[in-house]
């Protein structure tokens, strides 16, 4: 999830991808989730689920709060949790991080980062994974962020390349790739024996451009820059860990020869989610041998202010249905499982009216698993305080970015409880 603008790029012709890397072993240890054609399986039985997102879980100071959150998730029927496997700061942020007891794993103060394995560092992530195992919840762990939040790609770029740089150098600069892989190997080696890991995820919402840095001439529709990076990094993770699943963490943008269009202010607009501008090519990426299942995200209101413009020929609900169907068609063609890994609508009324329609489409058409953004937990023992940026614990409630849903919002809550029951009935 990230709110912001998106820069337009030129269209170019496509580049083919190939990979010789051997697919992973299907003979996985007990308790590890694996794939079986278009579905997941666990210990020889189908595994369908409702999951959720809580990036803030490793940021909580109190282990009791981590436990109570995972216990509530378990009680609601949640089986899979996605959280950030990264938290990076730079040297200038260290004094504040120490003063506020902020979780961080990587400290950047030169062209090479330092690991924090202390009680304010990876020990917090250790506890989340240990507690998840206790509550029978499996974790999707993300290695870095396309956006600045909690120290993403642009920290690597700033410290290794410096100005002037483009965002896409993250995917191609050998020194950056090497520092990224050093972090990936740290995390994978630490947790690779744990059945509480559902899957490794290469990056949150990888795109050619970021928050601050633009994309360069080598990252444009058809360049295959992102797809090549996905291939190289998924092969790398597979070389470290033969058993856990691997996925992209991408928003699921397409690179179609005839992209979807919509009317805005009497102009027919080419939709950037379908024309390759973001850099992703969902179809070719899902076909990579070490990308085990597809992810996509869905925030129509944040993505398209045009939706409410007079004369526009679409709605929030309809965009979502089309987006869901497009991903289902691809997953069907490729023959791999699919997760709506993040989705959201703004406002309680919109959530209540739109979620059932989206959820039914995903669950019924493809038996796809769903992971709404984002979980809201009440009654934390932690007092009110800022975590970082505008993210705060307020009166014992976890951060609300407009997409959070809390157990006191029963209409929304029940939609997810009902979906969890449907998925449970499809599992072994
Ligand atoms: C794998 O899929 C097949 C058919 O789609 C199904 O019959 C079988 O039960 C599944 N096995 C597991 C372990 O999920
Ligand atoms: C920081 O949090 C830890 C728990 O994660 C706690 O034990 C410690 O007392 C806290 N330190 C400060 C300075 O608040
Ligand atoms: C370090 O973080 C500070 C505060 O977020 C920011 O102003 C600065 O640009 C960062 N420096 C680098 C090199 O990323
Ligand atoms: C970062 O490096 C600068 C200059 O080398 C040094 O003055 C500063 O103390 C370092 N900060 C940290 C947190 O290591
Ligand atoms: C440290 O925290 C203060 C107070 O929240 C803030 O104004 C300042 O920008 C922070 N400094 C850095 C380097 O993040
Ligand atoms: C994981 O298991 C392997 C094989 O049993 C062992 O060599 C390794 O030390 C274990 N790693 C961790 C982090 O426990
Ligand atoms: C909007 O209108 C265009 C042109 O008629 C059409 O191609 C497109 O599919 C429509 N979009 C939606 C979401 O109905
Ligand atoms: C809509 O188009 C008109 C005429 O081209 C233009 O003046 C106006 O600024 C446009 N409005 C928006 C919100 O783009
Ligand atoms: C609900 O969705 C409509 C249509 O996009 C939008 O205009 C409205 O602002 C949303 N409500 C809230 C509270 O965000
Ligand atoms: C939170 O605490 C209040 C007051 O103690 C209680 O009424 C409510 O049921 C609790 N909510 C949850 C979700 O546990
Ligand atoms: C539920 O809890 C959230 C977070 O504390 C609060 O903002 C909201 O007003 C509460 N009630 C409802 C009906 O959403």
Automatic annotation (TrEMBL):
<dbReference type="GO" id="GO:0005576">
    <property type="term" value="C:extracellular region"/>
</dbReference>
<dbReference type="InterPro" id="IPR045053">
    <property type="entry name" value="MAN-like"/>
</dbReference>
<dbReference type="GO" id="GO:0016985">
    <property type="term" value="F:mannan endo-1,4-beta-mannosidase activity"/>
</dbReference>
<dbReference type="InterPro" id="IPR001547">
    <property type="entry name" value="Glyco_hydro_5"/>
</dbReference>
<protein>
    <recommendedName>
        <fullName>mannan endo-1,4-beta-mannosidase</fullName>
        <ecNumber>3.2.1.78</ecNumber>
    </recommendedName>
</protein>
<feature type="signal peptide">
    <location>
        <begin position="1"/>
        <end position="18"/>
    </location>
</feature>
<dbReference type="GO" id="GO:0046355">
    <property type="term" value="P:mannan catabolic process"/>
</dbReference>
<dbReference type="Pfam" id="PF26410">
    <property type="entry name" value="GH5_mannosidase"/>
</dbReference>
<feature type="domain" description="Glycoside hydrolase family 5">
    <location>
        <begin position="31"/>
        <end position="344"/>
    </location>
</feature>
<keyword id="KW-0378">Hydrolase</keyword>
<keyword id="KW-0326">Glycosidase</keyword>
<comment type="similarity">
    <text>Belongs to the glycosyl hydrolase 5 (cellulase A) family.</text>
</comment>
<dbReference type="InterPro" id="IPR017853">
    <property type="entry name" value="GH"/>
</dbReference>
<keyword id="KW-0732">Signal</keyword>
<keyword id="KW-0964">Secreted</keyword>
